[in-house]
Write a structure and sequence with these properties.
two-stranded antiparallel sheet; alpha/beta; nine-stranded mixed beta sheet; 38% helix; binds magnesium ion; binds guanosine-5'-triphosphate
Length: 359
């Protein structure tokens, strides 16, 4: 059985399909360990029909082959490590942030940027969607991006600003190194961002489940960005167990996408206030502790004093650290400090009312 096959691709009655979707069953994996009685209870579909659905889904695979086919040969941990290390990361245009992450945003992994409103999560996503397209002659991945906007905060004019700055930078490098200019243009960058707007969690889940086919057709895709993963899951839900199940399914899909296609998954997440008995309340990433295991790398963006900071909060290989960054007209950058003058080269004029400190 192909665990990621979408249930909507099976010959199941449309009324049953919508009941399965509403109850959070989207792919074959979701039904794997269920008994007909459990499925019937969760979906409201009759017991006999549930038996039929389980028989159908659990006996067929997407290419018609049977479920007991031989597994893929094992790959040694060393081979896996070498393979991952051979894939260059996506730079962010902030050297401090890149160094903190071990060179940039890695492929084959899920990186989550969390932070309060206005701190720069969307700007970070746009920067990464542009930077993934930097031509290989400049050390870039020459890839493309899938950008999933759940909040309606994607502004194409802003992407144009960031793209222009990146194109100018590449052309300047080309002049200095004697390469041909014009390898990357604003138009090529905009064409390389495949944009989806998802208005609710069902649209988001459906989009994520269709991504494998989309990426197969667009093999240059090297990053999938979701800004933000939290938005629909924080507001549309009363049923917390359904929310947990859907988030778990989505996390599994992201992990599979990252490893199978060797791409980076970049998610943004909001912050929420956590109250613990006997302790001060503090801001923590939203969606709860179990979601916290979904991402391999977690970076918290926050304000302190007059600066924006990125705090590497979770990483499998890098130690916890913090770097300041700024958002300029051209996008995400390091803060450049001159010895005689402690002011920044470009002002980053965030209104103080939006600034929040994370503890
Ligand atoms: P939410 O989506 O509300 O949670 O916030 P966010 O973390 O996504 O913030 P976002 O990335 O939208 O950052 C907004 C900030 O980026 C603004 O307050 C500005 O400081 C900065 N910014 C946005 N556009 C520009 C621009 O064109 N020029 C400059 N210099 N800064 C910009
Ligand atoms: Mg945003």
């Amino acid at each position: 059985m192909q665990s990621q096959r979408e249930l909507c691709s099976f010959p199941i009655a449309p009324s049953h399909k919508s009941k399965l979707t509403s109850a959070g069953f989207l792919i074959t994996e979701d039904l794997k360990h269920l008994k007909p009685s459990e499925l019937s209870k969760e979906t409201g579909i009759g017991l006999e029909e549930c038996l039929e659905i389980l028989k159908l889904v659990c006996s067929e695979s997407v290419d018609g082959s049977k479920r007991n086919e031989a597994p893929k040969p094992a790959v040694s941990a060393l081979e896996r490590l070498k393979e991952e290390q051979s894939l260059p990361p996506i730079i962010t245009f902030s050297e401090g942030l890149d160094n903190m992450l071990g060179g940039g945003v890695p492929l084959c992994k899920i990186t989550e940027f969390c932070g309060a409103p206005g701190v720069g999560k969307t700007q970070m996503c746009m920067q990464i969607a542009v930077d993934v397209q930097i031509p290989s002659q400049f050390g870039g991945l020459q890839g493309e991006a899938v950008y999933i906007d759940t909040e309606g905060s994607f502004i194409v004019e802003r992407l144009v600003d960031i793209a222009k700055a990146t194109v100018d930078h590449c052309n300047e490098m080309a002049r200095l190194e004697g390469f041909k200019e014009g390898e990357i243009t604003v138009e090529s960058v905009l064409s390389g961002v495949h944009f989806y707007r998802c208005h609710d969690y069902v649209e988001l889940l459906a989009t994520v489940h269709l991504l494998p086919e989309f990426i197969k057709k667009h093999p240059k895709i090297k990053v999938v960005l979701v800004d933000s993963v939290a938005f629909h899951f924080r507001h549309d839900f009363d049923d917390l167990s359904l929310r947990t199940r859907l988030l778990t399914t989505m996390a599994q899909s992201f992990i599979k996408l990252a490893t199978e296609f060797k791409i980076a998954i970049v998610l943004t997440n909001q912050m929420t206030t956590k109250f613990s008995p006997g302790e001060d309340s503090r801001l923590v990433p939203a969606l709860g502790e179990s979601w916290g295991h979904a991402s391999t790398i977690r970076v918290i963006l926050y304000w302190e004093g007059q600066k924006r900071w990125a705090w590497l909060y979770k990483s499998p290989s890098k130690k916890e650290s913090r770097v300041p960054y700024q958002i300029t007209m051209g996008g995400v950058r390091d803060i450049v400090t001159f010895p005689a003058d402690n002011s920044n080269d470009q002002s980053d004029d965030e209104p103080s009312s939006k600034r929040q400190k994370v503890s």
